[in-house]
Design brief:
Six copies of one chain form a homohexamer. Chain A is about 40% helix and about 20% strand. Chain A has twelve helices and ten strands. In chain A, strand 5 and strand 6 form a beta hairpin. Chains A and B meet through helix 6, helix 11, helix 12 and strand 10 of A and helix 6, helix 11, helix 12 and strand 10 of B.
Chain lengths: ~325, ~325, ~325, ~325, ~325, ~325
């Protein structure tokens, strides 16, 4: 298995593929299966992906022994032709070989935040440092001390697609929410800022178990069957036990339940996955802030993208945004 | 018709009435009708209200001539007995007389904000002063120059009931939202702050036509049939024409439409009265902030009321909150 | 820019295009944009349309200077090949040139009513002539005197697609409803016929601002963000002011509100765009008649089309009709 | 058992009962049951009804033998006191005796149409006489020849409550719809008038089995478990067999199915009881006309009742109308 | 017309077709229509089907006279090429000829149960033999005596697709439910087993009229417009009359209504086609058992199919199952 | 504090209270609060309950010191008058005193299963003994070894109201489901019986934390905020760790996730509290069986209660059953 880096001719991205092109390069592979043609000959079916998109691929002749050298989820060098099939492009593989990738290449294969991960994490830690109640400080530290979890927290995307669907997305979304809480809480003096801040820190941590993001973005089996809501609740159960056993800290009455309630209710309504309706002021605020950040981020990304598509003389509206249930009017009428 | 002030024995409030009490005092009257008993004798039906609640009332003998001296919506001095009827209390009037009320008394009859109206209005004006675009400054000034409208804006409640249902409530809710926008907009640099701020200033102004709040809180006929959403849109149409005709200012292209869109979409979804789904980043933010302030205000008011009901050894939960679709857990577990 | 008329070899319609044909002729163009290929070469993307349908088109080499001679929405002569792409046909343009079209050609490019527009308009005017109340007569006249509006009223379609989606469709639909009211109102003597008739005349006039129909059928930006419901309400506000200012006629109390209510409630329920539920007998009748005409027209057009497709030995059912939520049984069992 | 007629002192109606009155007179009784008090003494529970409403009643001491002389559904002379209980009035019976009632009295006990039943029935027959297709004429005659069914058709209400809930209501509603079809069908020439007219004649005939209306208005057990939709379909099955067997007439292909489809789909959507969505133009028209007549009738009855309640100086709105999901604005602004 | 049997080279199944193959063989044809090309030349449009799937087909040159020799629904020998068109495969016919098929061939063209039909029918009869009440025995016998109906009962599928969509499926599903009832009823002693058992026997018999299954699987016109729910109710009406007329057996009071209620309520809720909500314990049990068998059968068929697809190294989840609203986790973790 | 037993004059049950009775006896008290009258005098508010129902109670004069001797949730001897208030009965307490109750009295105060708890528990253990896989045997034993949990499992009700709302109800419902699975699983050979059986054993165990049932039936605070679904998932997490740590048994891959999925999905749909849709055959079967047992039990309890109310000559229908969304037809037509 060879090692590949990005010091190569300019990379072709999947989003720019046209019919009948010849493609070579390193991509992420997933869902690798060995099919059988009608003549009972084995062939390879899989998905090929880079940070710009994914395509189905077929290799019509492949030796089953060789197939076993390929990763089910991992990285491959391919040579292939693009071919329209059933209304979409697919790749007909001429050659495929398992490869290792370095970090530089990985950034071509999986989308990654444009922000600095270390700086964002430091901001989260700093905001947790403003917690007033010693028990909340101690609980936050129990999470921060879990190095494995924090490594995942810094890497995980916040979603498989739609918004913050890139390496570092979970951290970026969490920090964004904690900053929001930092400016919004003072406007509602009776709102307990500690509960809101730590609630936001915890609310999506179960996504580190729900999503796979080292080789491709996908839901794990556990993510499909259990999900980050319940796993975040179980994780809190463990951390509270650790805090008591290791740190000797017993949370004030109801704190465990109220924080767990924030986690399991933060999607707002059952149809969107909440196991309970938010039923404390802080749980309600967490759910609304989560919604605010998601909608503001999605709408600005769609209506006012960074890269100006400068030759667009066409419609003033974006495509319909599935998660917003509408298409967006793009012009900022005061900016023109 | 006599004039009444509050310099009287300690006032009895409707919320504290028990069965079989004798009540005297000044109240707001509404829905005054002359009914006919089975023996074809005229009787008076009406609602009696103060700042703490309302009750149905009956006066079994009344002269139709005298009836015509009473206001359909206004103020009366009454003498009455409380009586349970069909599962609720009602008032059996022994005497009723139209009265005028001074401002001090009015505050006993209609609920009023605990904040300072002049100070809040000054804050709104100051925030409008931070608008950057000259056309937005000019448009805001056109509204501020409408003295009649501003008088109503300072007095109107934001709702007939539920949240901000008191004199000054519309102003308080609007200011609360503009302050929120002031801290939230900087976190989303591509969000056009001018559109959000002026959009929030305008979004509920139609409520000055939707609600009656000088003698009682009720929907006007126009409020029932047209509503503040469409009336706010018509009001903007007029103001933009005034701005052009009087001030000679022509809004940049699309600004009129985009602001009107914010007004008609701010309830978020059609089921809650939005004529269009919010379809610009600023319209989406206005709708979410409106929702945030409403839910934070309602949940804190229910779970952590100002007046401590100190002898409550009972449930940790409030009654079910209709607008939140749930009951709320009251304890702040870190505050105990 | 050349002028083109229809005196040419028999026209090929888009609905009859097959793969791999060579097409020449005049069509409507819309959504014209200048894209960039992966090699950064400019290319033209647009939609090509005639009265029978529309297709996406591409011209792979185009000079940006020449591109600017083309209309974003307008008319062009093209030479092109049809090509299957991603499950649909698209046009590969070999030549494209802006042209003017005469009225005869326009009728090939935009679908048009089969009825006589002048005769239909005369019928509307005649039905308005039967209004009994002088204020209603005067209000109707204020609308009829707005020549620009009446020109649009005679041309606009009633929808972008589905039913009455052709030039003259709004007029045809409006007349159809007024005739319905003319026969139905006498069966309900307490129904105020004046309010129903003028309400129907006004209910969809906002569509003249919601839809673009001079070069293609599409929603205007204002149509997307505001819609014909609110714009019809604003239009009535203006006309009532004109009537008072110019004609010196003051409407009886509540008439303005009740007519505006008919306009904003005529879609029946919020999910279909009504800003209020119909809340007067006349508003209810207008909403139900609108629904009746739409459903009767759509179902007959689908199940019993004018052009008999004579060689159909197949299913007795139409395709599923989206707006009726079902497919229709075509045979009239008494007609066979 | 005595016979009672209405030549008595002026009748007291249930709708006018006040607490603590002494009532005597003849009423309809239903739901008669023998309860047991905690001391195991038998008591009578039942409902007492006249044409204006119904009340629960109790007789605290009753001999079981005497109880058996009372009808479960029928008529009784009572002496009773009105008493508030659990938020409503109830009757405490002092005496109760089974009676027979004459037709005049029956009209005091069950609400009845204000129209002439014979004249309405003649109108229905006349409209059926305009059917063009001989098979439809023959089918209509088969129904008209069923004397028992026609007797029920002339008496049955169209509903237990809400609209046309009175003796003769089914006939009145059916005739109203057939008249509507008579004026509407000519506006849609492709609509088969025969199918619409006979479809309307048949659509609610199953209500003769669904409702009990000789002693009180109630659903029959069969009405609850099967309903008029399925029973109307079964009835058509029988009539078509009779027509073939007795009259020797075989319906054209599909006519039986298409008419049965009209019956089972006329409620429009499954949530309102339709077994299928209307899927022919005629089935769609029948469902929409049924909706039109119901809504027009209900809205006019609520907003503009016959009896002017002349002393009402109160709200311009009716109570919330359950079946219209809103309250109605009462004034006709052009009539004042 | 020639007769074809299956003693031929190994059959190619539609599910295995690839683009650009040449196909010969016998298939089921449906929806045969004669279209017209733009040059007004006739062509054949139809669907071609075998037990594994179906594809659209076109024959670009065909003599209308020859067309009339083809069945609209039936069987044909074809020679054809597979061609991708608009994102799917279609067949371009080179030759087509009507054929008769023997039973062996029929099993290649229509999917068929893997169970023994005679044995299953015997089991149904045996279970009906355990009915205790003589009237229920007599009613069951009346159905069993209807040879034509029983022939259809043994052949009909239980659905057009999804579950039990094969010859013998209705019988298999019915037997499966009766066996379930046989073990479940004893756990609820108050449940009347006779009503449940015969209710299950009857509940889907209307499907023999709803579905066409002799040449292809499709809904009949009557199935679309009336459906098996209402037709099952009408069928019971007829059988009960036969039982009384021929057998002299009068059902106990309410039995007819209660059984008919089971039939029309067995889909549970109106959205899924129930004409009434199940309102007896037995009707509720029938609806729940029907749901249990459908879901258990579908989930096992999807997650644990008979044919092991042995080279699948891919996802642990099935495709999304439309009728279960989710995708299924395939592994049985205790079986590995 | 005195101790009270049931050897007393015949007990009066709350369900039989009439207005204006004098009541003495021992009851359960809950929600005890100290209110303040308008004159600022303290009074006691609470709920009084026995196994047949509950009523609000007030004691208008009470010493705050004495109040503190009363339990918030517990048992009291009371002397009281019944009084109608706001449409319901309430109790006016004359005397109230905290008491201890023995087990015999407890059975008068809380409803209890009519089955034998020891025998039912033995049946559950026996069914768990039929598990085939050693890991499942070991896991079941880990639960059975938790004495505290098993004590709760034997006592807890399955609901606060509706079905199995009595001491022992959780055990009875669980056993009922395991017996169902025992007879149903053999009919679906591919269904893994072990997973279904142990899944049913575990599915509602979280109710031991969700419900309070030692002094009254109510949701615990944790039950309101977290619920038995998430708590059942956390409990499994703990037990699996115990099994590994103590028993050294590691579950086969995916078993933990699949069992936890059964627990969190067993309510079927999110609207009813499922955190995930059931997505394995076994999870689907568990959800359907749970539904079957609930509906069969509720419908038989309502339509065919044990105690024959023999003098009911009235309606054949029960009251509307909230959880079944309908009223039930009571007669078993074959039993009469």
């Amino acid at each position: 298995m060879s090692t590949v880096n990005a010091a190569k001719p300019p990379r072709r991205y999947i989003s720019s593929f046209q019919p009948s092109e010849y493609i070579t390069g390193v991509f992420s592979i997933s869902n690798g299966q060995l099919g059988r043609t009608k003549n009972d000959k084995p062939y390879l079916k899989c998905m090929i992906r880079d940070k710009t998109g994914e395509l189905p691929a077929r290799m019509w002749t492949i030796d089953p022994e060789y197939f076993r050298t390929l990763p089910s989820e991992g990285f491959v060098y391919i040579e292939a032709e693009t071919q329209p099939f059933q209304g979409e492009l697919q790749l007909i593989l001429k050659a495929v070989e398992a490869v290792q990738v370095d970090d530089q290449m990985l950034q071509e294969l999986l989308p990654v935040t444009t922000k600095n991960i270390d700086a964002m994490f430091a901001d989260v830690v700093a905001l947790l440092g403003t917690l007033k109640h010693p028990a909340m400080q101690a609980l936050a530290q129990t999470y921060l001390d879990d190095e494995n979890l924090m490594t995942q927290f810094r890497r995980a995307p916040a979603a498989k697609s739609i918004h913050h669907a890139y390496i570092g997305g979970l951290l970026e979304h969490t920090l964004s929410l904690m900053k929001l809480a930092d400016v919004v809480c003072p406007l509602y003096p009776k709102m307990n800022r500690d509960l809101v801040l730590i609630g936001l820190f915890l609310h999506d941590l179960g996504k580190t178990r729900e999503l796979m993001y080292d080789r491709t973005f996908a839901y794990t089996d556990r993510g499909e069957l259990i999900g980050h809501i319940v796993d975040g609740a179980v994780m809190l159960h463990d951390k509270v036990q650790t805090l008591m056993r290791v740190g000797g800290v017993r949370l004030p009455k109801n704190v465990y339940t109220v924080l767990q309630h924030i986690i399991i209710s933060h999607h707002g309504v059952p149809e969107f996955g909440a196991a309970k309706l938010p039923s404390t002021p802080e749980a309600i605020l967490v759910a609304v802030l989560d919604n605010l950040d998601a909608k503001a981020t999605m709408s600005l990304a769609a209506a006012r993208p960074d890269r100006e598509e400068s030759n667009d003389f066409g419609s003033n509206f974006t495509e319909r945004q599935f998660a917003l249930d509408t298409k967006l009017f793009k012009p900022d009428p005061l900016a023109e």
